[in-house]
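Bumping with the actual sequence this time:
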Amino acid sequence: SLHDALPISSAVTGFFFGRKIRSCSCLDRKSPVVVYLYENTKELPSETRMGNVSTEWLAAISTGRDYSIDEKKKGCAVPVTPWLHPPVGKRLRDLITKLGTVRELERQEILYPQGRKVSDIVLVQQGVTARNFGNAVSGPKAAAISTPGHFACGNLNFLTRRPSLGTYFALTKAQVVVCPKDLLLPVLSTDPELFAYTIRLLESCTLSDRVGFALMAFAPIDLRLKAFVVTWAIHYGKLSADGFIKCPIPLTRNNRCLVANASPVSTDNALKRWKEEGAWVRDGDFVTFPADFVDDAYQWMRSAEESSEYAYPNTFKELMEALPPLTNPWY
């Protein structure tokens, strides 16, 4: 078996979507390579592939970067990112998990159809969910996404209970925690500090949507695609000493088209150009690119905002250097 053939330097065992997996680093390579080993099977079982997304990819995004939305120290503040809200802080995650109910979703399963009242706050635990505006044509299409540790829905109308004007669904097989707002609000009211944090987080989520709209309205396609890469790298990218960032591939091609509001032809042309320039190197479920390659998108995002007390790093590379490290054992 692969496990017997490769010398193992380290291994981590865990469960992902109920299946036992081991992550091992191999000693006979010039650079460390992570291999995912499935107990009692020689290859990745077909039922664990979510469309074009593999279980290895899902494991790699199962724990993203946990940064603070409140950091204002010069050169350390993290800008609000489009199409993926900031992560939910641990205290609030734990409270929602305690009060809520776990729900399993199949790929493309509707969480909240258009027209159904959103009366819960929903937290993603595994997989990826998405949301779009109005009623999806020819099946659900993503306009923005939610990954583990992020709100799937309920943030937009948390206090007002106004209509959310959208459809919420699972982009991959997913696990979420559904917590009724009527249960959460009374508990938050007894903890002013956590309540204040929740309001700041909800504002940041709304601002995230606003940045996404601004990019779709004013930025060219190439810049929109790079902006999504910036968002993805902030949450899942690892910067190396030579200035390159490695991260799980940012969704599938079709999903990137939908999130960045770009046609398949435009997306393919951009990726082809990036590859020809040597700036976009795909390796299985991961991609590597220079940090300065997406700096123009980072600068656009910074310039679109008015001045504030949040002092962002001058370049995207400097931001990646200032971010907390990733803690995902599968990465």
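The tokens above came from a reply further down the thread. The two ends are 23 Å apart (CA to CA).
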